[in-house]
Design a protein that fits this description.
- This protein has about 375 residues and is of the alpha/beta class.
- Helix content is about 20%, strand content about 30%.
- It folds into 2 domains: about 150 residues, Glucose Oxidase, domain 1 (3-Layer(bba) Sandwich); about 210 residues, Rossmann fold (3-Layer(aba) Sandwich).
- The structure holds glutamine.
- It catalyses: L-glutamine + H2O = L-glutamate + NH4(+); hydrogencarbonate + L-glutamine + 2 ATP + H2O = carbamoyl phosphate + L-glutamate + 2 ADP + phosphate + 2 H(+).
- InterPro entries: Anth_synth/Amidotransfase, CarbamoylP_synth_ssu, CarbamoylP_synth_ssu_N, CarbP_synth_ssu_N_sf, Class_I_gatase-like, CPSase_GATase1, GATASE.
- It comes from Streptomyces enissocaesilis.
Amino acid sequence: MTLSTRGAAKAPAVLVLEDGRTFRGRAYGAVGETFGEAVFNTGMTGYQETLTDPSYHRQVVVMTAPHVGNTGVNDEDDESKKIWVAGYVVRDPARVPSNWRSSRSLDEQLVDQGIVGISSIDTRALTRHLRERGAMRVGIFSGDALADEETLLARVKEAPQMVGAALAAEVATEEPYVVPAIGEKKFTVAAIDLGIKGMTPHRMAERGIEVHVLPATATAEDVYAVAPDGVFLSNGPGDPSTVDLTVIKDVLARKTPLFGICFGNQILGRALGFGTYKLKYGHRGINQPVQDRTTGKVEVTAHNHGFAVDAPLDKVSETPYGRAEVSHVCLNDDVVEGLQLLDQPAFSVQYHPEAAAGPHDAAYLFDRFVQLMEGQRA
Ligand SMILES: NC(=O)CC[C@H](N)C(=O)O
């Protein structure tokens, strides 16, 4: 631990929202400047997984939990090879991390990876502002990047918007790789990496699945070259309306068992002919109530999405691939949280059954995927 994490005064920093509201605080992590879409995460824990979730690429994450960094950073909980958030906003960073697995402080980790953040601001006021006005662009500035507010605001307004952003290829693997089945191998799955988290193939491997993780640019030929029993569509950053649907339509046409999560749910929805739209402020956190309408059960789930599928809640829809219905719904706001096809083995959820971090209520969805693959073999 360096002395700086022991509470030495950090440089002044300012956060500027695109509607002109500003918050003055202290630099946290790297000193400099950064831009992105301001979003808030309501998780009380799991900051290491949040920071390394590729779906947060180009987003500045505001933590609503006031005290962040308490357990430091360890060598096991990263969900990808680096921190992806564009910036980090916390109220009150831990001065001294304390956990048996901690190998360094969060502050040091942010500095090492050049992640610009801000602390000591009223994150509750900022969150309420984003809830009332909606997600918007933001900049964080410290050190040499500080300037008068008008100049900073003009720079925030130059930053790219999230609507229309095609980001999956920026975060996905360039080379295919294999995550071996744990124990006896029962199935092969081709997982299209649009920003996959490490825990996701692990959850499949635990169920005897050998997972071939393929780049976002994989063709149908690449997918079928691994002779998959099933195809998986991962989570990922950006606007789902930018994704080329050729491969997924091919998978649907061949009736290969298909499971999608988050971004995967959105692009399955689009392939079925539904629209996607931007939510006012999105769902991010590990305490979101969802109802599985196929069983009536309610589960508490991990979310990270700013877009959603526009599908009718109370009727079966006719699609080019047979009938489809909304299988899951968020109990906070009735947002579509899952889709299922009724005439072929394909389904998806808008949230994170891999639960890293988060409650494990939704783990049964990986078992449903296994059942679909078993059903196809029978
Ligand atoms: N976690 C994800 O896959 C996010 C999907 C999409 N980028 C969204 O914001 O809604």
